[in-house]
Amino acid sequence: MTEAATASEPAPIPGHIPESVVYDFDMFRDPAYLADPHKRVIDLLENAPPVFWTPRNGGHWMLVSHAANFEAARDCEDFSSEVLPYKEMEALLDQLADETGRVPRAYPINLDPPLHGIYRKPLQGVFSPRTINTMQEQIRAMACDLLDAVAGKGGCEFMSAVAEPLPVKVFLRMLGMPEDKYPEYRALVRAHLDAQALPGAEGALQRLQKVAQAMRDTIEERRDERRDDIISMLWGVEIDGRATTQEDLENYGVLLFIAGLDTVMQGIGLGVRHLAENPALQQRLRDDPSLISKATEELLRRYSFTVPPRRVARDMEFQGVQMKAGERAMLFLPGADLDPREFENPTEVNLEREGAHIAFNAGPHRCLGSHLARVELNILYEELLTRLPQFRLDPDKPPSFNCGHVVGVEQLHLVWGD
After folding, report:
1. Which residues, in sequence order, are CB contacts of 171 under 8 Å at separation 6+?
2. Which of 192, 256, 259, 407 could serve as 207's disulfide partner, Cβ 3.0–4.6 Å?
3. Nearest to 164 by CA among 267, 64, 73, 252
4. What is the distance between the alpha carbons of residues 339 and 344, in angstroms, rounded to a whole number?
5. Taking the mean position of all CA atoms in its chain, how far away is CA 217?
6. In sequence order, what are the residues at sequence separation of 6 or more whose Cβ sits closer than 8 angstroms to the Cβ of residue 287?
7. Measured between alpha carbons, how far is residue 150 from residues 59, 167, 388 in Å?
8. Sign of the C-alpha dihedral computed for residues 392, 170, 372 and 255 taken in this order
């Protein structure tokens, strides 16, 4: 094991796990990871086993290699997205409902096939390329307004000024939620994500209840007065032949709310940080904007940022290690997309690179919002490189990062001009 450098307490190592596959890494509190996440990812790829057990945060598996992630992501029978088996979870939540009120379910992300497909199907049309493409003008107008507001200032803290409000307000508009309350909504999501490293499920369930409560008025309004938004649309679809209910809308709502208000902003922050550190790439994209879509894909690969959790569903051997039913496994997508066994010179941003990344995961749980994310990133980069002069990191205020199930930039101070 490597030398411990984290505040979380190590759990006992199960007897079936040999020392050779144990590596000490805390995906929430590791100091080197928090200092520069993807630098630490490269270190893990070089020094840790491709699949390893960490005793931190209660003990769990980390799937670091591309091969391990790609296989596990497509194997929903062995790597379950359900925190507990479906019937057990439903019974537990029904019991809790008698004490604390109904707890929403984050469907379909916390379901396995075939239920996953049943609940995912109504969302397919919402996030189809055809639907998202109709929003491009709105997204571009938002990006231009945000960038124009800072262009004359010679610098800004980019996450709060642009990277956060752009995708958050786009998604609130898509949902039909009031945009002027976005700081309140972001605080709810941030609290939920920050607390995922804490032990115990009670707090997590209470946070989901708070998110559902924040959405309830809008959900009820759209039931009676439909508009051109996702919540209205979901009131009009069927799930496996039956009409949607208030409970269904809350289940969908907490998933969309949490996913839509945090992920794309991290992709923006990580990509813009790279551009700020690489003036030659900035200039190349300014000279030839047709390359921006390639840059978007390569930056997504270079800085993949989600770590989906899974539950091992049965005792088995996977990639040469013994796993037991009930253990947790993390799909470490940032490692998969930097794996030198899959990508030649993986730390290099190569706009001519062949081969597909899995920043949006793979298999049945591949991200529904991937096309929306691509459109937002492409537009943001286009307008950023048009409306700001050559920008760089503020030498007096280095970037800070957050880690966990979503890895990203906490603060990104940029400067430009003389």
Report:
1. 256, 260, 261, 264
2. 192
3. 267
4. 8
5. 26
6. none
7. 45, 17, 9
8. positive
Query: Are the beta carbons of 347 and 42 closer than 8 angstroms?
Result: yes
Show the tokens assigned to 157.
Answer: 């803290």
Cβ neighbour number for residue 262 with a 10 Å cutoff = 24
For domain 19-416, give the CATH number. 1.10.630.10
306 DSSP 8-state letter: B
Spatial neighbors of 67 by CB under 8 A, at least 6 apart, are 50, 319, 339, 341, 342
Element (H, E) at 53: strand 51-54
Look-up of token digits 């397919």 = 124
Give the contacts of 241 (CB within 8 A, at least 6 positions apart): none
State the burial class of residue 199 (Cβ atoms within 10 Å of its Cβ: 0-12, 13-18, 19+): exposed
pLDDT (tens digit, 9 = 90+) per residue, 268-309?
Answer: 999 999 999 999 999 999 999 999 999 999 999 999 999 999
Q: Which residues contact 390 (CB under 8 A, 6 or more apart)?
A: 279, 282, 283, 416
Among 102-111, 135-144, 285-294, the minimum mean pLDDT is found in: 102-111
Res 158 pLDDT > 60:
yes
Q: Which two tokens stand for residue 333?
A: 């997508």
In sequence order, the β-bridge partners of residue 318 are 321
239's enclosing H/E stretch is strand 238-239
Phi-psi region for residue 355, left (φ > 0), alpha (ψ -120 to 50) or beta? left
pTM: 0.93
Which of 358, 311, 312, 368 lies closest to 335, judged by CA?
Answer: 358
What is the tally of helices (H) and strands (E) in the chain? 18, 14
Assign 220 to helix, strand or coil: helix
Q: Of 230, 253, 226, 252, whose CA–CA distance to 239 is shortest?
A: 252
117: burial class by Cβ within 10 Å (0-12, 13-18, 19+)? middle
For 36-66, the pLDDT digits (tens) are: 999 999 999 999 999 999 999 999 999 999 9
Between the alpha carbon of residue 371 and those of residues 128, 130, 216, 292, the distances in Å are 7, 10, 27, 15
**Measured on CA atoms in the order 311, 315, 319, 320, is the torsion positive or negative?**
positive
